[in-house]
Amino acid sequence: MIPLVDDTAEVLELSAALVAYFGYNYVCACNGFEALILIETDSSIDILFTDLQMPGMHGFELAQRAKTIRTDLKVLYVTGHPSPIPDQPRETLGPILRKPFGWRQLAEYLCLASA
C-alpha cells in the first residue's frame, strides 16, 4: 500500500492513476497529518509517496515522523520546485521525482523503492 500525499488534487489524481496502472494499492491524503494517521493505522504501507512542498507539514518532516512509526518505510519525494527544502542537504532526502513526471519515471522510482 502506498499513501499518495499532495496538496494539489490534480497531482493526486494523476499519481493515483499511474500507481494503480502499475498494480499498486494506494490511498490518497491531502496533507502530512492525514498521511500520518494512515501510516499509524495501516500495517500494509511500505512506500510513502509525498510532495515536498506542502502547507502545514512539508514532505521531509512527514517522512521523518513516519519513520518513527515505521523505521523500514521507503520514501519517494515529488516536487515541482527547483530547491526542494531550504536548509536541508539534498543527500539526506533520498529519491526525488520532479514534476511534471511521466509514467516511465514513476515506474523506475517505484521499482527502486520496491527493491
Description:
This protein is an alpha/beta fold and 115 residues long. The chain has a single domain, classed as 3-Layer(aba) Sandwich (Rossmann fold). The protein contains 4 helices and 5 strands; from the N terminus they run βαβαβαββα. It has a 5-stranded parallel beta sheet, sandwiched between helices. α3 links the parallel β3 and β4. It is globular. The model has no long low-confidence stretch (mean pLDDT 87).
The CATH class: Alpha Beta
CATH topology: Rossmann fold
Number of strands: 5
Strand content: 15-25%
Any idea what the CATH architecture is?
A: 3-Layer(aba) Sandwich
- The span between the termini is 15 Å
Coarse morphology: globular
The number of helical segments is: 4
Q: Find the structural class using helix and strand composition.
A: alpha/beta
Provide the residue-averaged pLDDT: 87
Assembly state (oligomeric): single chain
From N to C, what is the helix and strand string? Answer: EHEHEHEEH
Strand line-up of the largest beta sheet = 2-1-3-4-5
